Amino acid sequence: MAFAEKVPSARNGVLDLREVSFEKSIPLEGEWLMKFGKLIAPQSVDNVDFKPVEFPKRWKSARFEPELGCATYRLLVLLPKNRPPLRMAIPPVYCSYRLYINGNLTTVNGSVSESPAAYVPYWKYEETRVPIDADSLWLTYQIANWSHSKGGSNNAIVLGEANKI
Fold it and tell me: Quick check: pTM over 0.85?
C-alpha cells in the first residue's frame, strides 16, 4: 500500500479530503475527537463532551491512565464529489473495537464493553467498503482494552481506492 506524500491532517475532528485524488492511500491521522471511559453509539453523540486528541496514539502516550478502559473516537471525513470506489483498512488495536460509518456498524473485532465482564479481545486486520454515494463519512470508532498492557491504537485507519487496499 503506497501512501500519498502530502496528506491533509485532521483538525478538531474534521479531515478534508475534497482535493485529494486517491492515487495513493491516505492514513486518517491527526486530531480526532475522543471521549475516554465511554462507548457512545453514533446516534447518541450530539451532547457528548468530546476532546480533541492525536490519533493514532496509545492511551498512555496520550496521558490517559491507566491503559485499561474504553473510548469513543469521532472523525468527519469530507470526500471529493468525483471519486473512485473506496475501502478502509483497519489495523489491529489494543484490543477490541467497533467501527461505524455514517451510523452503520461496518467492522467488529472482539467484544467491546465498558466493563471487563463482557469484553473479549481480538487482534485482526480488517477491511470495509465505503458507501459509494457518500460525500462525507462520520466515523465512530469504539475501542476497549481490559486485558493488555497497552491500550488505544498505534496505527491509523487507511482510506484508499478499493482495488488498491
Answer: yes
